[in-house]
Amino acid sequence: MTRLVRFVNKSYGRRISFYFLPLIAGLSIMVAILSYSIFFKAFRQENEKSAQLLVGQISVNLDYYFRDAKTIVAYLYDNNDVQRAYQYFQTLRFEQKVMLEFSIDEYTKNVNIFKNYLKDVLFVGENGFQRNLPTYYRLADGTRLLDSAWLLPYRNLTERRFYFTAPHKNDYYETGAIPSLVVSAILPVFQEGRRLGYVIGDVDYDLLRGVLDEIYRQNDIDISLVSDSGLLVFSRNPDLVNTRVDPRILAHVDKDQGEFTYDSGPGRQLCVYQKSPVTGWYLLASIPFSAMLRPSTHVSRTVLLLIMPISLLCAIGLTFLLGRRIRQPLAKLVERMERVDFERLEPLSVADDGGEISHLSRKFEEMLARLNHLIVQTYRLELQQKDAQFQTMLSQITPHFMYNALQLIKTEAVVAGNEEVSRIVTSFGNLLRYVGEDTPSLVTVAEECGYIHDYLSIYRRRFGPWFDYSIRIDPRVEKLLVLKLILQPIVENCLIHGLKDRKDGGLISLEAEPDGELIRFTITDNGCGLSEDRKRLIIEQLDQETRTDGRIGLYNVHQRVRIKCGPECGITSISSERGLTVIRLVVKGETAVVARRPD
């Protein structure tokens, strides 16, 4: 035993071989046993994750088309002429019917000009009224859409919401039109609980299927789309469309998204599903276990039969080389560590001989270099911080000086008995403080309206009594918090553009009152007014992504409010009422912990 210990301790190589080679051999055997199961699990998880991402991406792509179709159908639903046709078409005279149909055609002729996936929009009334987009084929004579087989399941609807049909042929057009498959978005029309008809948007089925065909060409994943009634809407096999899905699969689909496994004819399958928030349909991605195991089996065999034996042999050879090379470089490294001057952490160059200790030495010198860099950087940051503090103190001098100067002017005006100047200076000081950088982005309704009061009072004192103004705040909203500076651009618009041609008798009014859970500001002026085309153009430009005409006041207010409060808020209307121009701004109000008053 003593001889064995002496033999082993004679060199680093022998010690490493004696203690670590048995360990390496044991670990190699364990890795060989576990590699197959580990790689199998890893590849399965990767396939599950990829399928979930794929299902989410496809769902988003399909929902885009269906959501856009819903938007167009809802837009046409609200047209007055469409509603009139559903109610009174059977009672109109012939010339009235022609004029009504012409008006509807004018309103609908451009709705799908950039929507190539929207085949057509159908207007079907219980009173016999039938119409479609004037830009598509005319409906065939004698066609009664209400009796169509694909529409019959929706004839007894009692709820006003969107319904989506299974794929069906649009074979209800005149001769010359080639029937094709479409998926229809149906919105029933009700009045006082009575169903008057339907607005139907036909979505191109072949275009939607193209989204899935691209997936079919790229991998083994089988993508299916199942309606809420259990019918196959899309499938890799077109012959299965409009057939019932296996009840065993539907039994697992009980949430908005998830995954499960099931046995099918070709073998065991992994199914990942997600429910569409637009259509209520389920998108299913089925992956055969054989496809998931194929790469993991290949990798596992490679590891077991080639990489592991070679690694074991290389480990044995490297063990002896490591023992020879470790002593001298290790001694040099220890000596270098002992000679480090912590007052001057300057790194030295290290010859790279490819050894592990050489690598450690190089990393040690790199660490010294980083430490030296961090010390210098920290020193510079301290200098920059002190300089920033100094600049901050300087930046506070100017507004502080302005407030002191205004206070001095106000005091002199009061001493001189000039109350008008004192009031102007007070209003101007309030404006400066209100727009200052140290004020919060949310203010109370009372503060925002107080700012408008100071703003208009300065204008009125400057230009004389050619206009007057009034401000009314409902007590229920005056302490709620809203975005700052959302009213001034609108009021300024009234002054500069609305009252520009008036010599006297101008009037601007501002009202703040609750509108359900929101706050509605109504700004009114009796100026020159706006034409209908101009009002419509302004409303359209408010929702554009960018503005290039330089008139950005109303646009900025609208976009700020929508970003903060949501799409239901913003400038909701610009109208003319009783000779007045009325702008309505709707915002969300937040409850203030402590209501602040302007200084």
Quick structural gist:
The chain is an alpha+beta fold and 599 residues long. Helix content is 49%, strand content 20%. The protein has 3 domains: 11-339, PAS domain (Beta-Lactamase), CATH 3.30.450; 345-417; 419-591, Heat Shock Protein 90 (2-Layer Sandwich).
Give the terminus-to-terminus CA distance: 93 Å
Strand content: 15-25%
Question: Mean pLDDT, as a whole number?
Answer: 79
Structural class comes to alpha+beta
Helical proportion? 40-55%
The total count of strands amounts to 19
CATH architecture of the largest domain: 2-Layer Sandwich
| CATH hierarchy, class of the largest domain | Alpha Beta
What does this structure look like?
The chain is of the alpha+beta class. The protein has three domains: 11-339, PAS domain (Beta-Lactamase), CATH 3.30.450.20; 345-417; 419-591, Histidine kinase-like ATPase, C-terminal domain (Heat Shock Protein 90). It contains 13 helices and 19 strands. It has helices at residues 2-8, 12-77, 80-88, 94-108, 205-218, 247-250, 289-338, 356-415, 419-435, 445-463, 488-498, 532-542, 553-565, and strands spanning 118-125, 130-132, 163-164, 168-169, 181-191, 194-204, 222-226, 232-234, 257-263, 268-275, 282-288, 442-444, 467-473, 480-483, 506-515, 518-525, 570-577, 580-588, 590-591. The strands form four sheets. Strands 1, 2, 3, 4, 5 and 6 form a six-stranded antiparallel beta sheet that branches. A five-stranded antiparallel beta sheet has the order 8-7-11-10-9. Strand 15 (506-515) and strand 16 (518-525) form a beta hairpin. The protein is flat and about 115 Å long. Mean pLDDT is 79; it is low at 392-398 and 594-599.
